[in-house]
Amino acid sequence: MKHYSVLKNEVIEGLNINPEGIYIDATLGYGGHSEEILKRLRRGFLFAFDQDEDAIHFGQQRLSKVSNNFKIIYDNFENLKECLNKEGITKVDGIVFDLGLSSPQIDETDRGFTFMKDAPLDMRMDKQKKLTAEIVINNYSLEDLINIFFTYGEEKFSKTIAKNIIEYRKKQKITHTKELVEIIKSSVPIKYFLNNHPERQIFQAIRIEVNNELKVLEKALEEAIMLLNPQGRICVISFHSLEDRIVKQIFKKYSEINKLVKGLPVIPDEYKPLIRLVINKPIVATEKELAENSRSKSAKLRIIERL
Q1: Which end of the chain is more exposed for a tag (fewer CB within 10 A), N or C?
Q2: DSSP class of 120
Q3: Where are the alpha helices (DSSP H) in 103-257?
Q4: Nearest-angstrom CA–CA distance, 234 and 14
């Protein structure tokens, strides 16, 4: 199964792994980052999270070839803290979040994540969940569709696209990705369609809605910071501006002195920064990695350390 772990070397270096430590891969995917973490652990332990049964099955086989010092948890990283508490873990030494879709998820036609192949409108990370892209497209109101496309897709033709979806579904249900792409194509000037690919933005917006991605990320990142031991690190790879903005804002919030006490001669401990930025600007893929994997193009890695 083909899968390329984005910025793998940079993540492993950024984690600054302690061989005796406890590490979390919040997004196991097909196990690239987890495998490299596991190779560096002696008496340490890895907990890996995923909500995709296919990824868990593949990851279990891959990691078992390295060592037994791991456990895969079938859950969304939204429940990171709660799941770790059940394992008796209250503090960890490093956490990695790779927020991109794995290549097999994109390439697996029946998942409906890509607009480049005709597939059922699904887009669920967790196939046990009820909300699908088909439900969003066929049942959401005009106002809700406009809001999703504009907020999560940052698409300037959101209103026209949403109106045309509403008109189309009056005649027949929209069930496949190709149908949706054709509606989008008919909603914008052809030059704009060819140059800007609004279908990419719309598909992104629907996927975020189906999987509640941005709200989940915000909650998980804040909890992750609280889980870290001193010198523990978090590495986050984001793939679009909305994700990166959330990561940047949360890291900024916890790396600065609280405004309420800024300027005081003595800062009480509870108002001091909890983390420091290991890097001020995000790390992006090298030319070599881009040549090997074009999906690395939009990836940004941010790293923090607990004080």
Answers
A1: N
A2: B
A3: 103-107, 133-139, 142-153, 158-171, 177-187, 190-196, 198-211, 213-227, 241-255
A4: 8
Concatenate the DSSP letters of all residues of 39-60 into one string: HT-SS-EEEEEES-HHHHHHHH
pLDDT of residue 251: 98
Closest C-alpha among 101, 96, 63, 64 to residue 80: 96
Q: Is the dihedral of CA 85, 25, 101, 73 positive or negative?
A: negative
Give yes or no for residue 1 having a pLDDT over 50.
no
Longest dimension (CA), the chain: 69
Measured between its terminal Cα atoms, the distance across the chain in Å is 40
pTM greater than 0.85 (yes/no): yes
Q: Tell me how far apart the alpha carbons of residues 125 and 112 are, in angstroms, rounded to a whole number.
A: 11
**Summary mean pLDDT of the chain:** 94
Enclosing H/E stretch for 97: strand 92-98
Q: How far apart are CA 99 and CA 245, in angstroms?
A: 13
The CATH number of 109-211 is 1.10.150.170
**pLDDT > 90: percent of the chain:** 84
User: What topology does CATH give the domain 8-104+213-306?
Assistant: Rossmann fold (3.40.50)
